[in-house]
Design goal:
Layout (H helix, E strand, L loop, with lengths): L5 E3 L15 H26 L6 H26 L2 E2 L13 E2 L1 H18 L18 H18 L5 H11 L11 E3 L10 H8 L5 E3 L1 H9 L5 H4 L26 H4 L5 E4 L1 H13 L8 H15 L4 H9 L12 H12 L4 H11 L25 H6 L1 H11 L14
Antiparallel strand pairs: 1-5, 2-3, 4-6
Helix pairs in contact: 1-2, 2-3, 2-4, 3-4, 4-5, 4-10, 10-11, 10-13, 11-12, 11-13, 13-14
Length: 415
């Protein structure tokens, strides 16, 4: 919703930036800490305690993979809230954890990620078939970790260009090289292990969402060949609901059928996402083995092919003056951000983060924004439970970031 790919039909709280009514920050905070990071921590503890079960190198690989996922999760938490418990996190004896500055967390995460990359050994195994992403193939995890490093580096590039440049150039040779490297969650066709999109759009029996005019209008204006992959037709046209308005389900296009399928894969990190980061890196002057234009073309082509389009469709799309790198509207940030945002349709967090980092493309303001705010939110406010149960540390964190507001920028979000 905040990437303005969809809007709501009846209950329009979130599309109007109200995440308090349904306690969204608390749900996100709890799931990351209690159901992901704490589980990863416990898994590492159990693996470290194993004796005589497997080769030490295989055991080490399992621990390094867990560490890579720890880095992924903590970077995501910083990108959502700005400051979060980190040094004091996951200690059941400390129920009042202090908050660490987002920049400090990122700096430590780069160190942790480098250690994991250097420690992974693709000559031995890891989790085997218990690894739902890569079936235990350590070479894939090495690529994933390097690609994650590039994502993190590009995220902070406006705040620390030197660190970002060094990290990208270190990681690019070991990152994804094709869509075959994509990290996807293989959902099943039956409950409870189907895609949450299917749960919300089909299994729920509800009609709560339609594609938003922000995206649909942009793609219509560019004659984008992916529209039939993203949306259904409404009376022969692609029609998006007015962002933030109560948009009758019957009057607009809907999310395309394949995306609603129970086993449509979850998107964790992809080659297409990487290509847009490399395009941006080249535009910033980093050495990534291509020019901004060549990488831009590769990224858009990869997205169209990933969605089932053809090479001819990609070439025709790129030939349009409104799309071609040399003639599309705006500076490099606007060109790259617009196309990255379009390509990230099923990964709303990436779309929203691209908008926050690069300030493009132009988003719509809803009719009744929460608390009267005058711009698209740049972060989640801290959870209510943190305000009431960890008050002193909450107050310190709120002051440190410049106020616990929806519009307070994350440390990397430079205007």
């Amino acid at each position: 919703l905040w990437s303005q790919y969809w809007t709501e039909t009846t209950y329009v709280d979130e599309a109007n930036f109200d995440i308090v009514n349904r306690n969204v920050p608390q749900n996100v905070f709890r799931i990351f800490y209690r159901r992901v990071l704490k589980d990863l921590n416990e898994a590492a503890t159990l693996i470290e305690a194993e004796e005589g079960v497997e080769a030490e190198a295989t055991k080490a690989n399992r621990l390094h993979i867990i560490e890579v996922m720890n880095v992924y999760c903590y970077s995501r938490l910083v990108d959502i809230f700005g400051m979060v418990p980190y040094t004091d996190a996951l200690d059941i004896e400390n129920v009042y954890p202090s908050y660490d500055a987002g920049e400090d967390i990122y700096n430590d995460l780069f160190t942790r990620l480098d250690a994991a990359i250097n420690g992974l050994n693709d000559g031995v195994g890891s989790f085997g078939s218990s690894d739902l992403y890569y079936n235990g193939h350590v070479d894939n995890w090495i690529k994933f970790a390097n690609t994650l490093k590039i994502r993190m580096a590009i995220t902070i590039a406006d705040a620390n260009d030197a660190l970002a440049k060094a990290a990208v150039e270190e990681a690019v040779a070991g990152a994804f090289t094709s869509s075959g490297d994509d990290c996807l969650m293989p959902y099943l066709s039956s409950s409870p292990n189907y895609n949450p999109i299917h749960d919300n759009l089909v299994a729920s029996g509800r009609d709560d969402y339609v594609p938003a005019n922000t995206l649909v209008d942009k793609m219509n204006g560019l004659n984008d060949p992916r529209r039939d992959n993203y949306f259904t037709l409404h009376n022969g046209s692609y029609v998006g609901g007015e962002y933030g308005e109560s948009s009758s389900f019957a009057n607009y296009s809907h999310v395309a059928g394949p995306i609603q399928a129970a086993d449509f894969p979850g998107i964790v990190l992809t080659y297409n996402e990487l290509l847009f980061y490399l395009t941006e890196a080249a535009a910033r002057g980093y050495n990534v083995g291509g020019t901004p234009e060549s990488l831009y073309n590769d990224a858009i082509t990869e997205s169209i092919l990933w969605w089932g389009g053809t090479q001819a469709e990609a070439e025709a799309y790129l030939a349009q003056a409104s799309v071609a790198y040399s003639t599309a509207t705006g500076n490099w940030k606007e060109k790259i951000a617009t196309q990255s945002w379009i390509a990230s349709y099923v990964n709303g967090f990436v779309g929203w983060t691209t908008f926050r980092r690069l300030d493009y493309p132009a988003f719509n303001m809803p009719p009744s924004p929460y608390d009267g705010i005058s711009q698209v939110p740049t972060r989640f406010t801290f959870p209510i439970n943190e305000q009431t149960l960890n008050g002193a540390n909450y107050q310190q964190a709120a002051a440190a970031i410049g106020g616990d507001e929806l519009t307070t920028p994350i440390f990397w979000d430079k205007y």
